[in-house]
Amino acid sequence: MNTKPIPPITSDDLAKLFKALSHPTRIKIIEHLKAIDQCICGEIVSIFPLSQSTVSQHLKSLREAGLIKGEVEGPKTCYCLNRDMFETFKRAVALL
Amino acid sequence: MNTKPIPPITSDDLAKLFKALSHPTRIKIIEHLKAIDQCICGEIVSIFPLSQSTVSQHLKSLREAGLIKGEVEGPKTCYCLNRDMFETFKRAVALL
DNA sequence: ATCGTTTATCGTAGATTAACGATTAAACAA
DNA sequence: TTGTTTAATCGTTAATCTACGATAAACGAT
Known about the structure:
2 copies of one chain form a homodimer.
Chain A (H helix, E strand, L loop, with lengths): L10 H10 L3 H13 L1 E3 H7 L4 H13 L3 E6 L2 E6 L1 H12 L2
Antiparallel strand pairs in A: 1-3, 2-3
The structure holds a DNA duplex.
């Protein structure tokens, strides 16, 4: 009968997502990607008064949490929001 | 005319709330308080396989983020969810 | 007044985070 | 081929986090 619902994200999973978003820079990256749909790493770097390596680290955190996707295009990397994951996250928060 | 909306929580504020919720134990504390409305510190401690001092630290994090309120009642402390703040938080996430 | 209970705080150790500059790797341009 | 650009990774440092046991403070009970 399959009455079993999809397990609605554990506290551990949700904690990881919260942690990924627990830095203002990472929130701003998400907001930016939400607004412009996609962009090159360098453009994101140029938004912040931070070094390239630091921004790259933040992007890595978000990527590892599944919130963004990065696609290599030649020497550049194009980032975009993972809208599925982002919506899953927002739904989980709404259900808290 | 007061068309100016209430500033909708900065990235810094939101990051602090995310950080407060970035640990599974703290999420579970919130869920518990949401469910039972209020309870004594000792009851929360007994839920987790953690020392009293560690749980007390987690409660402090949540208190400092404004997500819970603690009221001293004799030698005990009664904790409850700060529903206003919690709803503000959820609204902010929904608007992301 | 003393004792037991409850909870917050202190001090500490180990892990993790955030920042940086330097380096590396990959791709394109000349 | 050589040089330039782009972005990831490495290594480091300082700060913060998580956990613990020990202690202190506040109260109620005897």
